[in-house]
Amino acid sequence: MRMTAPQKQQQIPYYLLLHIFSHLPAETLIVCKRVCTLWHSTILSSQRFRRLLFLQPPSPETAHARKPVVVHPVLMLLKSDWAIAGSPIVFSSACNANGKLLAECPVKDEYATEPALTTFLVVMPGYCVEIGRREGVRVWDVAKGVKKLFVSMAEQSKSTVFEDSCPATLNGFRQANRMRNNRKFIALFRYDESDESGSEGIGPNGLLVAG
Question: What pTM did the predictor assign?
Answer without folding.
Answer: 0.74
